[in-house]
Every structure is written in C-alpha cells, then in structure tokens.
C-alpha cells in the first residue's frame, strides 16, 4: 500500500500519536483511536479522513463516556506502530514528518495531535502557547521543536507520575 503524505494523512498521524494504539486480533491488526463520547465533531472528522484514504472506520458504541474508532488495515496499522510508537511512553513524531519542509504538513500533524492531547493557553505575559500532554519525553521535546519551527511557543510541564485507573486498568 502507498499513501500520500498530505494534510489529511499528517493530521491522522497526529491523532494516532495523541489518541491511537495498535491492537492485534485473530484475523488482522488495527489501529484504535480512543476519544471521549462528547467529541462528536472529532470522531466525524477522524472517520472522514479514514474514509478518504479508502478504509471503512468502525465507531464502537459508547462505553463509560468514551468511544473508540477502529481503522482496519494491517499494513498501515503496523506502519503507524513502527514510526509513531506503540504506547504512551514510546510515542514520537515520525522523522519524515518532523523533518518535512512543507509547513502545511507540520501544521496538520500538530493540529491532529493537539485535537487529541492538547490545548492552547494564554500565559501571564499574554502570549498564546500550545500545551500538550504526553508520557513520552522524546515526544515532548519533538513537539516543542515542531511547534517552534512553525513560530509557536510550546510549553512542557513535567509532573510527577501518579497512579490512576482507566477502564479498570491501573495506569501510571
């Protein structure tokens, strides 16, 4: 399979880095995007991008306030895992995006990431600043570098690890 790197695919890579994971089933591998049930526009946009690439997304019924969007493509899902990481601590920006010269590609990736795991704040000095949340030190530094290359400040907050429970699983 070949997929063009354009604003849609760059956005999809950003969403995967923020909200995606890789899963292997009995017949195929898939990418799963975990979103809040209230994020209806984001779910629709994600499904539209997946459809535009020739795949049929599956949106799981709401569970505990969340919804999962499935992308069933074994080759593409394995590629996402390989270039973006497989879990929160290993997530990273693919090198072919991080070093891309086209600012539209860079901006689309950052937009996808921020739609999933970020927000924009106004600092005490009045400067607007992107803030992302990640457990990956590599990703945090890459996001700062990518955002700076677009002329935007990006804030990194280091917080001590804490234990919480998500869907009955213990998460640090």
Overall structural class, as computed from helix and strand content, comes to alpha+beta
String of helices and strands: HEEHEEHHHEEHEEE
Tell me roughly what share of residues is in helical segments: 40-55%
The counted number of beta strands is 9
Q: Judging from the principal axes of the Cα atoms, what is the shape? A: globular
What proportion of the residues form beta strands (DSSP E)? 15-25%
| Major pleated sheet | 4 strands, antiparallel
Terminus-to-terminus distance: 36 Å
User: What is the average per-residue confidence, as pLDDT, rounded to a whole number?
Assistant: 87
In order across it, which strands form the biggest sheet?
A: 1-2-4-3
* Individual helix count: 6
Estimated radius of gyration:
16 Å
Low-confidence stretches: none
Report on the structure:
By secondary structure, the chain is of the alpha+beta class. Helices cover 40% and strands 23% of the residues. The strands form three sheets. The protein has a four-stranded antiparallel beta sheet with strand order 1-2-4-3. It has a three-stranded mixed beta sheet with strand order 5-6-7. The mean pLDDT is 87.
Describe the structure in brief.
This protein is α+β, with helices and mostly antiparallel strands and about 170 residues long. The chain has helices at about 5-20, 40-50, 75-85, 95-100, 105-115, 135-150; strands spanning about 20-25, 30-35, 60, 65-70, 120, 130, 155, 165, 170.
């Amino acid at each position: 399979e070949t997929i063009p790197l354009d604003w849609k695919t760059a956005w999809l890579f950003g969403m995967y880095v923020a909200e995606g994971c890789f899963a292997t089933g009995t017949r195929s591998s898939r990418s799963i995007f975990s979103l809040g049930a209230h994020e209806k526009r984001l779910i629709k946009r994600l499904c539209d991008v997946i459809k535009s690439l020739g795949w049929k997304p599956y949106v799981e019924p709401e569970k505990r306030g969340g919804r999962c969007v499935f992308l069933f493509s074994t080759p593409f899902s394995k590629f996402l895992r390989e270039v973006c990481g497989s879990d929160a601590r290993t997530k990273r920006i693919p090198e072919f995006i991080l070093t891309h010269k086209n600012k539209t590609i860079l901006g689309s990736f950052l937009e996808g990431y921020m739609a999933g795991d970020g927000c924009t704040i106004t600092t005490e000095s009045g400067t607007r600043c992107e803030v992302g949340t990640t457990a990956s030190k590599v990703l945090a530094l890459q996001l700062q570098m990518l955002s700076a290359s677009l002329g935007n400040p990006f804030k990194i907050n280091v917080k001590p690890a804490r234990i919480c429970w998500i869907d009955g699983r213990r998460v640090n």
